[in-house]
Amino acid sequence: MSLKEILQKLAQDGNPKLLGSDKTPTEAGVQLVTLSEGMLKVKAHLQPGMYIAEINDSGYLGTVLFRFK
């Protein structure tokens, strides 16, 4: 699943705000319009209520991209 697909699902469901690298909570819908197309194509994993993490080329969880507030 791509980061874009995860953010779209969260935006539709009205889920809580996300904490990104800037420590300012933002909504998933805002992230959809502010992130680059390349970033939105990144393979990612959603751990509901906890975080969204990148999936690396080996199929393992990598960097945590967003945490839920």
Helical amount: 25-40%
Q: Order of helices and strands, N to C?
A: HEEHHEEE
- How big is the Rg? 11 Å
Low-confidence stretches: none
**Helix- and strand-based class?**
alpha+beta
Number of domains: 1
Structure annotation, total helices: 3
Highlighted features:
3 helices; 5 strands; five-stranded antiparallel β-sheet; alpha+beta
Describe the structure.
The chain is of the alpha+beta class and 69 residues long. The chain has one domain (3-68). The protein has helices at 3-13, 28-34, 37-40; strands at residues 18-19, 25-26, 44-47, 51-55, 61-68. It has a five-stranded antiparallel sheet. Helix 1 runs antiparallel to helix 2. The relative contact order is 0.26.
In short:
The chain is α+β, with helices and mostly antiparallel strands. It has three helices and five strands.
Task: Chart the SSEs and their pairings.
Layout: H1 3-13, E1 18-19, E2 25-26, H2 28-34, H3 37-40, E3 44-47, E4 51-55, E5 61-68
Antiparallel strand pairs: 1-2, 1-5, 3-4, 4-5
